[in-house]
Records
---
Amino acid sequence: MANYKDIKGFNVQSLSSDPAASIGATGTWASAPNINTGRMELFGTGPGTAGMVVNGTPDGSDGSQVYDCEVYNGSAWTEVNNTDQRRQDGASAGVTTSALVTAGYTTSPRGNSSFTETFDGTNWSEETNISNGVQGRRGLGASESASLIVSAAPSNNCELWNGSSWTELNNQNTARSGQGTFGTSTAGIGSGGNPYRAIVESFDGTNWTEVGDLNTARQYLSGGGTQTAGLVFGGSEPPSTTKTEIFDGTSWTEAGDLSIAKYYGAGGGTQPSSIYAGGTPGTPAKESSEEWSTASSLTKINEGQVYFNSSSTNAFKVSQVKVPGGTWASGGNLNAPGTNAGGASNGTPTATLVFAGDRPSRSTVTESYNGSAWTEVNDMNTGRNNLGGFGLQGAANGFGGGTPSATDANESWNGTSWTEVNDLNTTRLYVAGCGLQTAGLAIGNAPNSGITENFNGTNWTEVGDLNTGRSAAMASGSPTAAICSGGQNPSDSSQAVCEQYDGTSWTEVADLNTGRQGGFRFGTKTAQVVAAGYDGSSNVAVTEYFDGSSWTEVGDLSIGRNCGGNMSSGTGTSAGIVFGGTAPGGAATEEWAVSLANYTITVS
């Protein structure tokens, strides 16, 4: 008989701590001594054992700005020589023995400051002024002689200091103030910013490129690390937050929280060691400081691994992807806000297609999403709304809908252009779709039809009807294993009924907890996620997960919406996307993700 190790490839090990995805994921914050002069809108550098904080204001008013500079040695803060100018909300870069400060707002004279100073570990020296001295700019760089100062809205201007002069470099793509920055002048990151941004851009010494968004949009945050191993912490969502996120060069993962929620603090360092001091709102935020540190080693997390945690938990655990632990995060906005569109996806938020719909009236517009931005591509041949869609980003079908009357038209997308192919047998409005371009289903029809058709890549064939006729339902899966949830008909505008399809007939299973129409969905016959929709009185943000027998409410969207894109976005429940829809959805995109995590094994 095979044992567990032969099946999954692991022994059941005894571990003193839970496995982690990376060293960064093991990080925790610990209280450090208070700074000597409590303040906010200060700025500084790291790492955790050699930090520095400069200037700021103790009470939030510009009249109380200080010249003070303090350095940290890992155990205490010490006041050192003051700067020549006092300011708040400025920019800093470098380390405690080779630092630069510039920009910000000053009272001497009152206004935005272009004054630039460098620090050699003992003394401050005046340097050539920066050309665009405005508050809200932030800096990154390894030393005062290689410091990059990033933009502050409304300008997206970036400037490089080489130790003797300033040079304007290529602008950031999105202007914003109060970013969380880290890295070097040739390999840097600018993240978040005012107003409450999740946008992240990476700099290669010449150009800025958008990369994976933060999980939590925020402004006036701080950061530390390198372009491929960084972290950001604090900020205002609003309100002020304790959240920390680590970056692997591609994506962000939430890690250990700060003990005090605050923004407008000063900090920096590395992913293994950073410092965060001062900030707002009020006491104790403006006096406090915290150190971030990571473990010296780790056991790598592997999906399916069972182990015994021999620490204080003394529990058997398993590493798994658990859908109820999923969360939604903001993505890039559509170029053309709209409702009642069709769509298709590769099963990941980084590869999605949306087409037609009301933008603001029946449209042919098609947009493709790469995980950070939507790009307009070639239009459909026939403008329509309330259509169905299935397939992948590069191989999709859009069928039915209104033009303005119901249509049976069907178009095929090859990744570049749309081609008219064989029509549906029955004209459809508010039709649901699921499957792939060469093996998909069209389900339901307004006002109360249960008609279902199977597409084999060439022709449509009528198959078994739904037991409960409806339109604007949420379907996912394949032509031989599908699920259809919710919808509407004249007797019920927010159905909760759910049916499964086996390739021949439909069977009713457990109802949704929140009946709705026009929501988003992704998954399979036995594992579906349904999000958003209209519950008969208002748009909802409710997300539910079906495990094959029952529905469980999981993490909600940030906003309620319905009729965004009539699509089945993928074949799994660990990743998905919603976009557009009725107000306040508009152009907004949100992405669903479930992380690999460790869970205690329970017996019931």
---
Amino acid sequence: MNLQPIKGNHKPRGPVVLVIMDGVGIGRGDAGDLVSKASTPHLDWLREHVPHTRLKAHGAAVGMPSYEDMGNSEVGHNAIGCGRVFRQGAGLVQDAVDTGALFEGPVWKRLIDQCLRHESALHFIGLLSDGNVHSHVDHLEAMLETAKAQGVRTARVHPLLDGRDVAPTSALEYVDRLEAHLARMNADGGVDYAIASGGGRLNITMDRYEADWSMVERGWDIHVRGRGPTFGSAREAIESHRAADPGVIDQDLPPFVIVRDGHPVGPVRDGDSVIFFNFRGDRAMEMTRALEEDGFDLFDRTPRPQIAFAGMMEYDGDLHIPASYLVVPPAIDRTMGEYLSRSGLRQFALSETQKYGHVTYFFNGNRSGKFDDDLEEYVEIPSDRLPFEQRPWMKAGEITDAAIEAMRRGGIDFIRMNYPNGDMVGHTGNLLAVEVSVEAVDLAVGRLMETARETGAILVITADHGNADDMAQRSKTGEIIVDPATGKPAPKTAHSLNPVPVYIFDPDGRAGARLAAVEDPGISSLAATCLNLMGFQAPEGYSPSLVDGPEVAKLS
């Protein structure tokens, strides 16, 4: 599986550096577009002087069911890293639900059988929205209906509130919908299906990359132990938390436990079955470990109930987490990273904690570990443990320092790196902070450009999806919705459906890069592009390269 060189000497003097500006897409240039509003002299210069184009980063271009579905960092880095488009989590799960394959599989049958034999409860933990990034409420409702049809008498739902992949204060829309669905199921008196506990996704349960295990412990307390602030309903909990903190958005809402007659309605008990119904892995991994790992010691789980557990999908294919899952994930092979390692080329992967797994695990096709320990170097810069809007520059400076050191060191053929700012700060809905986050990334890109001139590196500057480029809620006709309380655009925290840029900065001109005629390109073309710039042919079946040779004027 060795790469084949392109005829002629096109190898650059320095490494090819793939710079992923997470969440920095191409917006409309209006008040909701914080990328265009920000001061970005380096990105502006690139637009004027280097080969560049727009790439699709959502919908079918990254394996999602339709172009109404936003992209996300997981599927985006999959597509970038493997150079092709695989049908992804949301589509796979929807197919399994629609065909009934999910309910015919041995894992589902085992969970249901556990509940029937022990007359125990079936629990569902997961993100309650239709954002289709981590989960979808349709999947939850379908599982509840099938569980009832198959004789499960007690079910408990532990919803995690979104406000990130959907409107920032839309939680009651989904909670009311779920409550109405449960009421219809309970109407004949044959079952008892109810919401048991919940809270904001960035307050409990959905930590990732081991950034803050206390979030998971809070989730354990309310989901498993039934310990936390108590309320008579989820609506009452949300309204009470909002009254106590009027500015809070859904993802940050504190936890709640639902009680009847003074007792929690749904702690997880011995003999119960539990499903984590998120299909995306990064924010499901830690609670999954807490629920099923025997040697777990990151917080006290006493008493730990003996349960049957499954995730919606396999969250880590190498570590086999979880041990049981309902839907088989795509088998992603022949990634760019594997080709480079098998060909004896040196790689360097870099980000801060929040996106470190994206340039490693997801980039490598949902694979933990390295292909070759001697040829690959992975660097994680620890992320700040505070709200991102309070420090919107995040670790852009430290990431850039490490990248510059690697570029100057020599001996590295390919560097991939991620600046999380546009995405992580974009999700906060704080418009001023988002503007600063984009400016921090632009400053970092400028430093990389200077080092590329010095070292002969080629920069491929792009994004995995949009976010900071569309920060305003819009009407059905696309007009910005203004918050009457502030007179400013009502903030949107979800990813955008906008294209993303790609700029090819080749100061030596050695690679002879010029834009190829690729119809409607997507971010899956970035792998072939980087390989071509390194002087190698793209593997068979890869999405077409964005560059073509042999001549291009030297850039200054």
---
Amino acid sequence: MERDENTRRLDFLREVWRLAKPYFVSEDRKAAWLLLAVVIGLNLFSVYLSVRFNFWRNDFYNTLQQYNVHGFWVQIGIFTLLAVIAIVTGVYQTYLQQMLQIRWRRWLTHRYLGHWLDDKTYYRLQLTSGTTDNPDQRISQDIDLFTSVTLSLTVGGAGFLNSVVTLFSFLTILWSLSGSLAVPLGSLGTFTIPGYLFWFALVYAIGGTWVTFKIGRPLVTLNFAQQRYEADFRFSLVRLRENTENVALYGGEPRERTIFTDRFGHVVDNFWAIMRRIKIINWWTYFYTQFAIIFPYLVTAPRYLTHAIELGGLMQTADAFGQVQTSLSFLINSYTDIAQWQAVVQRLGGFEQRMQALSQEARGKQPIDVERGGQGLSVSHLDLDRPDGVALLRDVNLKAGPGEAVLVTGPTGIGKSTLLRAISGIWPYGKGAIRLAIGKLLFLPQRPYLPLGTLRQALIYPRAETDLPETRLAEAMEKVGLAGFIPRLDEDDNWAQRLSLGEQQRLSFARVLLTEPDLLFLDEATSALDEANEAKLYRMLRGAAWHPTIVSIGHRSTLAALHDAQHDISVFRASSAPVTTP
């Protein structure tokens, strides 16, 4: 059992190093190592100042005991100088540590955002729901906690490095001041303990650490769960904000309140469990800390009362004992932070490993072979499955020649949208061959995506900038029936809520006019429009000068007249696939 525990600790430290190492070998490594070296240097200097304050206590209290007025003011002057230096050291140690933290967080955030967005990993993550919850929370919060807690626990003012250096710095002082303790053993004589205060501090701290570790272990699991519950609750609030109109039209406030209450209930219940566990830990740590104040005086008083040491020696010894005991009690004083750190490392490490695995899958040979070449579209012997392995479609064959318009129909839920996902290369479940013409591709979903920002940025999405003239943008808006919005192109707003679904679909057709794709895929992209405007937009595309190949998904019977061919893919339905009949 002990060996398994040690193995887990080593695995945890390896995981911390695996997460931390990339930054310190990155392009920002020079600044990272310089800041780290300065922070460590200030940390070591602060320990030196603690040693100087320890010797000052000896001189100061001896001066008081001797009623030396001149010596008193000299010691006050020395203290003032040491205090000023300590203040400057503490301020810059914290400031430079925070500078390192924000640079590290910035680099990690860019790195994780890159992993999340590259190879459409964000999409594959949501297909395998349950394996990695709330990736947004892991990027925004867990990275922040990882950098701040790692630096705090390792090189911070009360971190591991400070504790180790403080321990060895005061060991010699404590050993030399404590003398020997003679323990009578009756007829066996006397047993002498050299440097007995050091051994008392060691036993005191090790015993306290062992007890704290035993009663605090469940905090790791509880902190891990708390972060997940907090993220789930926050996500439900964001979902309401993004769908305010739909909820209002449904009158869904009671249901939303139930969802919020249930999710927040998990937050509260788990927090109560954390509170109860911390209460148990605090009973022990508060007792341990308070008794540590008087303990060195109890064990040092015999030497002072027998005039073996002066008052200054007593105070110096008590301070040295406190420094050794505090440094040895690092795990006790930091256990809550360590538990949170372990939870963050687990979440962040699992998230990174999952992203890397999905990225490797995406870059490997895909069972659905999507190639660019030839003309139009060709789908050959394509099988499509759901993420859980349930078969959707089998042996799909579909063709669309250059400039042709093909309509794909079928019952709801049969896999029409999944077919378009496979053609776009983002659906990994299945096998077969898809050949696409070389040229621009554009996919229009039923509900267009409108990014945050101005209406102009929504119009040219996914491009961040464009050199298209203003007249070209206005012409596209006018052709799709959005001329009234032309004066508002540079207005920054939440356009996904300001525009109706029909207006959003018109805007997506304006994107088509600006992009001029060779292959255009429409997934019920006109479902919110009336039949007359739907026909108008389709005729506009069919008559476009660049003659795009069009593949549409739709249910309206009027769409057939706007296409050259129609394919009902229900003939490819797998026997095990459940279908909802419209």
---
Amino acid sequence: MSAIKKFGTFGGVFTPTLLTILGVIMYLRLGWVIGNAGLLGAWLIIIISFLITTCTALSMSSITTNIRIGSGGAYAIVSQSLGLEIGGSLGIPRYISQGLAVTMYIFGFREGWLFIFPHHNPFLIDVIVFVVLFGIAYKSANLAIRTQYIIMAIIVASLVSIVLAAFYGSMVYTTIDVTRWGSFTGSEGMGTDFWLVFAVFFPASTGIMAGANMSGELENPRKSILIGTMWAVAVSFAIYMILAFWIARSASETELLNNYNIMIDKSYFGPAIVAGVLGATFSSALASIIGSSRILQAMGDHKVIPKGDWLALRNKSGEPRNAMAVTGIMVFATMLMRDLNAIAPLVTMFFLITYTMINLVLIIEHNLGLISFRPTFKIHKTIPWIGLITSIAAMFIINPLLSLISILVVVAVYSILTKRDLNTPFEDVRSGLFVSFAEWAAKHASLFPDRQERAWKPKLLVPVTNPETVRGDFFFLEKIAGPKGSVKLMGIGNKEKSKELSANLLTLSQAFQKKGVFASWTVLKTDEFVQGIGLGIQALEGEFFKPNILFVNLYNSNESRTDLKTIIREAIQSNLGILIFAPHSKAGFGQTQTINVWIRDRSPSWKISWDVGNLDLSILLAYKLKVNWNAQIRLITVIEKEEEFEHAEQFMNSLMDLARLPKTETIVLTGNFLQNIANAPLADLNIFGTLEEPDFDFIDKMVKQTSSSCVFVRDSGFENVMA
């Protein structure tokens, strides 16, 4: 097996980055920019453009010195920081846009070629250039890098031709004669403005990712991306500023506006400039096709896209041939479109979205304050903010509509990837982000009153000695807690059983998570069930997100009813709501269509107030099940005196209205409570209130008489059905 070729800073980063920045815009549009904006205006445009890319390059360099970056460049940076879903939502559009960029560079090469040979067939030129490009890239990145060395020599020669022209009289205007601030005449005198001219020039400065795209093939990516990118940016910035000065002193405003080939005409040796144009477009296309195939290979390696295993394959020398083949097909297909002017700005948009996300990643890392963020190259906190704000501003300055479209594309891809359940092979900062946000929220929430009735949601505490009992209650617990509540499994077992119990509770917790219910677990190593639960409840009182309901299955519990009473008393003292579940051995939950909520006789006072007694948790539980089961709630009360009927009915209707219970049936029965149980309409679940000291005989009787599963509820005092 041949060794995989690794590249250094000069060949792997500096060369492709510099050649991509020194592109066709430098040769064919810089004169037009100066003709419109004047020398000072052009310098300002160059400075703003490079300010955006320099801040992003600094942010990217800082991040890469803090992670072990893999293949994919910016895709790898974002994925390792914010997860595969966000990385993929940027990587997929960026890959496609890089493919479109290859096609545009091929078209640019064709225009330069037709300048020399105007009678050649345009499509044939495109095909030949594509075949040569693809052949070099498919053969190896090493061959591509060596080809770029030749192109760099050609571009240097073209710049030498400009320098010689300056010495031999091309600078015919003095500094005083040069237009310092242009009139923004526009093409054919139709007028333009500063930001439109900026939009034309800005893509020239967006090549800073060309070297980073080679991250998987660099000997030392931490060092090379930093040094190679920053040197390429610095050198190209100096070249653009000096070229702008030369062009401004070498041609009149009219010439600059109407002659895109002004650099060819004013140089010492025109063919050297033509060769530079061809070399610049060819090298940019070569860097883009190599970089895009590496992005595709990296996404395949992480299973972000279909056929990931096949796309991730490399040959013996480390070349991603399959990804390269797919990229070649995409590029050739876009070549057949012949005109990319309508979608060409999307390429710039996706570059800018990538810049935005890279700066955002560094801002997040800075503000989380995690000890894991220890970049060896540190920059001031204001730099990524400048990069973020200017990148977003540039998007909407260049094209507001396409900016929105490109953002929607990224969001759409993200929404698709979030449903794919991607397996991230590395740790990202999302956990730190959520933990920091939770800590911030907890600190601020602690300043509010304790009750927080509007923010109430079911957070169940489930004591477990035998995991089989929880499996039997799983469906019911999920429907009570889901989707925004939570389940805390508290295992009680001796040292011998604790390991097996831990494994079982972990499995159950993961099962709840798959159903969209947040679940956590712990095991208390003790032989004393009652004491263990008591200590556990006391310990949980110190938690911010502590449970608010104790759930007990009366018939699946291995403990005595005396012990259960002790546990319930402990829970009540700790302000926990009580939920005693008494399942019917045969009926189960029936058809999960109807829920009866029983309300005690409140005679002689049926006045309704903010505190409705031990009813809040019963109705909230019923409503939760109504939503998750798509069931019907029925409120029932039994009164002994018929003269209380109207008051009871009015109370029920007011309660239904204030509790916002839509389509709820209310029933008022008269006579003996126990006798009316049998006369009440059947339900799949019956909910009753219970006293602080539950009557287990009464519970048994209710299950039998209703022929259904029953729940016996006691409020904690922190619920309010009218909140």
